[in-house]
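Weekly modeling sync, notes
Attendees: S.R. (lead), two postdocs, one rotation student

Agenda item 3: backlog of single-chain predictions. S.R. asked that every request posted to the team notebook include the full sequence so nobody has to chase files. The rotation student volunteered to paste the first one in as an example of the format we agreed on. Action items at the bottom.

Example entry:
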Amino acid sequence: MRKSNKILSIIGLAQRARKIISGEELVVNAIKDQKVFFVLLSTDASENTKKKIANKCEYYQIPYRIQFSRQELGQAIGKPSRVVIGITDKGFSNRLQELTE
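Predicted structure, as returned to the notebook:
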């Protein structure tokens, strides 16, 4: 299994376990409340969105990666395209961090 497929399937598992928040506003609020442990941002997000999410993550010391298209992220969680998703579970977060390094 390719690494990217593995990452996307773990995201799918996290979604089924209800450990994912998606959507820019929800994720930003969750970052502020320290409710997410890892954030994935799509490569085709607008520069403004990338900057906003990256700054929030850095300020609150939450790891993030810019990876996958919005279609791939959306497909992984069974929704239409998603620009940003936050992982609310420590275990899933740690595993995704390892795989995305």
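Discussion: group reviewed the output briefly. Residues 3-16 form the longest helix (14 residues).
Action items: rotation student to repeat for the remaining queue; S.R. to check formatting next week.
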